[in-house]
Design brief:
three-stranded antiparallel beta sheet; 15% strand; alpha+beta; binds iron/sulfur cluster; 173 residues; 24% helix
């Protein structure tokens, strides 16, 4: 009697397994033939911290050092000097990318919107020294981006006021 139950359970289990196989056989594969097929990376994907630049192409970074103090791994180094107006000038900004855990804390801590998590991810190298990126390379990574917050949206321009509509409140004269 027990052996009959065993055969029944095995048959049910087999049919369940075949059902799962049949369902998945009809689905489109989710894997990509990388690198021939490239993934579409979602908004907010974190590849590597990068420097943002202003309209003139210069780093927005003010060399305040908050990101370097925030980084839990201490992989950010900032080299700066005092300008003639006593403001700090960024000489170099380096990031030890092989140790960075892409946690985004430096980007969130920056009060000047000068950092962004760029989407670059194909950065493997045999020589760890080449994974220490400096200011120019970090600016290159950051060129495609305008803001550190990837979900930032420019505010809609105010709709044009209709003719005869007061713009500062109160009744029209
Ligand atoms: S992403 Fe995290 S680990 Fe990498 S540099 Fe920024 S704070 Fe440091
Ligand atoms: S927190 Fe921002 S402005 Fe300050 S050093 Fe870091 S990147 Fe530059």
């Amino acid at each position: 009697m027990d052996s009959l139950k065993d055969i029944y359970r095995s048959a049910v289990s087999l049919l369940k397994g075949m059902k799962v196989t049949a369902i998945n056989a009809a689905r489109r594969p989710v894997t990509l033939q990388y690198p021939d097929e490239r993934p579409v990376l979602p908004t907010g994907y974190r590849g590597i911290p990068a420097l943002l630049s202003d309209e003139g192409g210069k780093a927005r970074c003010t060399a305040c050092g908050i990101c370097a103090r925030t980084c839990p791994l201490g992989v950010i180094k900032i080299d700066s000097e005092l300008g003639p107006d006593k403001k700090r000038i960024l000489k170099d900004y380096s990031l030890e990318a092989s140790r960075c855990m892409v946690c985004n804390l430096c980007v969130e801590a920056c009060p000047f919107d000068s950092l962004v998590m760029a989407k670059d991810f194909e950065l493997a190298d045999y020589d760890p020294d080449r994974l220490v990126y400096h200011k120019d390379r970090l600016l290159e990574f950051g060129r495609p981006y305008k803001h550190g917050n990837p979900f930032y949206k420019e505010p809609d321009p105010k709709p044009a006021a209709k003719a005869g509509t007061p713009t500062t409140g109160g009744e029209p004269a």
